[in-house]
Amino acid sequence: MADEIMLLDWWSSMFGMRVRIALVEKGLNYESREEDLNNKSPLLLEMNPVHRKIPVLIHNGKPICESQIIVEYIDEVWKDKSPLLPTDPYQRAQARFWADYIDNKYDPILSLNIDHVRQIFELGGKIWTSKGEDQEAAKKELMECLQILEGELGEKPFFGGENFGFVDVSLVTFSCWFYAYESFGNFSIEAECPKLITWTKRCLQKSSVSSSLPDPLKIHDFVVQLRKKFGIE
Question: End-to-end distance of the chain based on CA atoms, in angstroms?
Answer without folding.
Answer: 54
